[in-house]
């Protein structure tokens, strides 16, 4: 019988990449993080933690080589000139301190950048509007422009080498890197030696690779990131035609091929729409075209799947962005025979929202992500308990579970009680939606950790009231009792209730997501009113339609599940509902709901025309907002005078019971409460984290 460690030995073999050698096959591919050039210390600490966790290679996000192609307001890396070197050196030093190679993804993104900050006119192979909807067009490059971009790239590669990077990228991925704009017929209408045949269209990429090898190839491995399929069928590059042929033409030029699919929303699909290893079908052929090593991605969290991908010859290095975000210590856990402790990515793309909203990265599974520098949080280490206080946590949803787990890790005696028969809270509901099963990992991982802790006791089927809590004698009480959906339509669009729910005839035909999860039959046709705009409305429409109900989805937003633009799922959600036959009304609010006979007549008001049209249905499902379930907390607060006698030193409410939000926010709240249980209380006005302050240039003499 092979031991777990030896089964995974192949993952710990070194790989030669040009002049440098990795210590293993774990490769953190470039990923955005909302920190970039604006928050270099945060960035270095976050990357350093990955290196500490065992990743053999740790890469930057996209790094700008020139102000002629910059991504403002998005916070990416920056190497415009020498002054940018020290910030990135922080990262390379943090990686080297733990034996990881540091990689830099240099980019010039042509018409995929708008240059909102520098105000330079973007450049492209041919005249074309930029990808964003800004009224900006990229201009066709002449030969001087091409020479300039090559020079900027070369100089940036030299600066990257001086900053300490071991791997330097030429970026042609995601429909972003300009070499891809040259390769694709859709965006290259040139008639000179850079247009026409594929040989001509890969010329720019070839030149950049040659320039980079010439500049830094003696010290650094040169990596090409190329999207081999745009998932556009014959309209675009596919892995069966020009994606494959482009690699064949340049096969031995780079030291490493980093291959994936475009655009970013295809590359980083959520678990709702893709399985682990979903890119293999597009990239599996690459290793047959080159003798150089290949790295690929596919949200691999299982070491067995990783071993299999290597043994089947799909790739040499396991590329990971999200699995490394959810668990920066994944490689070390595999190596130490603790693979069962891996905190697996759930594929929700909350991490992507950070970059899209220009704020530091956050993660549903890993509450320390993005907090390494500013709060000093480490994903594996936490301060030991400072007192012998006993703790009661009420509610085993994501907030209560993470709080219990982290307090248990600290060594506190913790009792976790939940009214339900299973832990998970809202996750039990969410994970039952189509495509959401991975979300249960948030509860499962925490339950597994808690069950290994002798100082934590779990009490299920235990609904607690204030009398019980006051009677138990715990020193610290945390209330994480979640939230419930409102029935009356109050929300973003309607700041006052839309329905009189005291009208029993009407209320009997109006449902909430909680009713659906409780198994209440929903009469068809059902009109779902989504004023929440994240996943719930769209996912329930899918679930009910799949059960055979006729479904109408009404939303005041311009799109279905509008916030999922930030998680790069929106298009898939709306087109999926369309294919299922869900009738969608956007820019529409409910003006009135009347009970008529056995059904309802709903007045649907178009927000632009103000016209109201009647719509018949049998039921309305309100997805508007949630109310905190804080009755227990309120009852305890009212009885504050009894706390001392009951041995209680503090009562705190957290998670959805405090402010309903995402699962990520609830996990974060639980983690924070565990860290702060015995921390010195800060004045409320004091910022509780470090900030990266802007250096003010000294005034010039003239
Ligand atoms: P959060 O997202 O903040 O963690 P959830 O809604 O996911 O919140 O979880 C709240 C949990 O609290 C649920 O599992 C629910 O059963 C439990 N709960 C609510 N009220 C009580 C109570 N009075 N006693 C015990 N458990 C409770
Ligand atoms: Fe995975 Fe979600 Fe964390 Fe991103 S936020 S790494 S998708 S668990």
What can you see in these coordinates?
The chain is α/β, with parallel strands linked by helices and 702 residues long. It contains 26 helices and 29 strands. The strands form seven sheets. It has an eight-stranded parallel barrel, surrounded by six helices. Strands 17-16-15-18-29 form a five-stranded parallel β-sheet, sandwiched between helices. A hairpin with a 7-residue loop joins strand 8 (128-129) and strand 9. Helix 3 packs across helix 4. The radius of gyration is 27 Å and the shape is globular. It starts with a helix and ends in a 26-residue tail after the last helix. 53% of the residues are buried. The site of iron/sulfur cluster (SF4) has 13 residues, from helix 13 and helix 15.
Bound molecules: adenosine-5'-diphosphate, iron/sulfur cluster
- Largest β-sheet summary: 8 strands, parallel, barrel
Arrangement of strands in the largest sheet: 3-4-6-10-11-12-13-14
Which percent band covers the strand fraction? 15-25%
Helix content: 25-40%
Radius of gyration using CA atoms only: 27 Å
| Strand count | 29
Choose one word for the global shape.
Answer: globular
Going by helix content, strand content and strand pairing, the class is alpha/beta
Number of helices: 26
Mean pLDDT: 96
Ends apart, CA distance between termini: 77 Å
The low-pLDDT segments are: none
Helix and strand layout, with pairings?
Elements: H1 4-7, E1 16-17, E2 20-21, E3 26-28, H2 40-52, E4 57-64, E5 77-78, H3 85-96, E6 101-107, E7 123-124, E8 128-129, E9 137-140, H4 143-163, E10 167-172, H5 178-183, H6 198-201, H7 203-216, E11 221-229, H8 242-250, E12 256-261, H9 264-267, H10 280-283, H11 286-289, E13 294-296, H12 303-311, E14 317-320, H13 322-326, H14 330-335, H15 350-356, E15 390-394, H16 398-410, E16 413-417, H17 426-430, H18 441-451, E17 456-459, H19 466-472, E18 476-479, E19 483-485, H20 504-507, E20 510-511, H21 513-517, E21 526-530, H22 535-546, E22 551-554, H23 570-580, E23 583-585, E24 588-596, E25 599-606, E26 612-617, E27 619-623, E28 626-628, H24 631-638, H25 643-646, E29 650-653, H26 663-676
Parallel strand pairs: 3-4, 3-14, 4-5, 4-6, 6-10, 7-9, 10-11, 11-12, 12-13, 13-14, 15-16, 15-18, 16-17, 18-29, 20-27, 21-22, 21-27, 22-23
Antiparallel strand pairs: 1-2, 8-9, 19-28, 24-25, 25-26
Helix pairs in contact: 2-3, 3-4, 4-7, 16-18, 16-26, 22-23
This protein binds adenosine-5'-diphosphate and iron/sulfur cluster.
Adenosine-5'-diphosphate binds at residues 394-400, 417-420, 425-426, 463-464, 480-483, 629, 632, 655-657, 666.
